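job 3f2a | input accepted
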Amino acid sequence: MKNLSVERRMGDWMRGVLPHGVVEFVMFGLKMAWACLFAGLMLGAIIFTAVFWQEGASVSRYDFLVLFAVVVQILLLWFRLESWREAKVILLFHISGTAMEVFKLHMGSWDYPEAGIFEIAGVPLFSGFMYASVGSFMARAMRTFDMRFVGYPRYWTTVVLAVAIYVNFFSHHFLPDMRYVLMVITVGLFWQTRVYFTPLKSRMWMPMVASALLSSLFLYIAENVGTLTGTWLYSGTASFSFASIGKMGSWYLLLFVSFVQVSLVYRHVLVSDGRQEE
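job 3f2a | predicted structure (278 res):
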């Protein structure tokens, strides 16, 4: 499914009504919002239930969030607002994210203070969809902006790096934490990688490392939606408090793991020869 008809019609309509001078900027914002569709709906549901959910309801808040995520996924596929390729990415993220959640919960890194039926080892299944929303955003953005990653390093090196980062999220509880070393490696490995994208007609680019830093900032903001609504609670912090700024570094590293996972089904966007886009 190369083009989704609803997205195309929306884009054509906006191009017809926007002033020429601001069309590229506005279309960039609209496309980013469209790429964040699943993540935005999940955050909206978290905020809504935190404010309006009644204690003692027949369906727990956590279980509602699981059912909500499943229904949204079905509707996105039914109305062709999401491709089956993107659905595969979401499933992969759900599995890897839930595995990490189970381990981190066992180690006491954070907790889910409310009860629910749909859970694995105390981890509510909606948490896997929160990880999946990152993969959904990446996959949708790649398609919507016709992205190309130029000057991309050898693929096997990125896989090794992603595995090392993912393992460190587990091993740092028992062995020295290698996160800062891994951060330096990400900069060295992707220093020459450019992300090319098209908001409307103009072809633009930005360094991939800068893109990861900006994305980690937005993910940190989204992280605080969960903590400030009491949806999850980090060890050593009070209820309804901000997450530690150090979480931004964790998200920065996790983004590279996420990107490699997405690239398993989007290998065509990786370009090793920069001259193909110059």
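job 3f2a | The mean pLDDT is 87.
job 3f2a | closed
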